[in-house]
Amino acid sequence: MLDVLNQMSSLKELRHILGQSTDAKTVIVCVGNTLKGDDGAAIELYQKLAGKIKAELFDTGTVPENYIQRIIKTRPHTIVLIDVVDFGGTAGQIKVFEPEEIPEIAASTHVMSLRFFSDILKRETDSKILLTGIQPKQLGLGSGLSNPVKEAVTQLAELFIDMFGPADASSGTAAKNEN
Question: Which CATH code, of 3.30.70.360, 3.40.50.1450, 3.40.50.20, 1.10.260.40, is assigned to 2-175?
């Protein structure tokens, strides 16, 4: 029961923070590796959101640094980074972090640490930056998403579609990782 309350609290917190900027330009950056189990969560989220929301949407795969200039050019007010983060929670738990809370040297499957990536984006855009982390259950090669992480992805997709959808022909773009 405590896990459900924690999840609701994190989603409510994210809704509250983003609710202050739904009229401003929001960019959602999905970071992950679909070959490493739950690390593909953000990419699954990207697939659920592409074409359905007004916010700018990026699938950066494991190389978010390749998208820095494209993100800067959108002139965002708020940037939401989505990735799996082992913060010691229960599998599928969602937690919102400020950039300062992200360890500078954190275990990651990505080339550039999310802390360094967020520091660059903050310096270049002066945007509000949030990391929405999903606690992974497993990161095994070729294992797919675990059920708790699939549920977290669905909850985030519903939240973002509710807040930033539906997309119309003149709003929102989706940039897919081609690496």
Answer: 3.40.50.1450
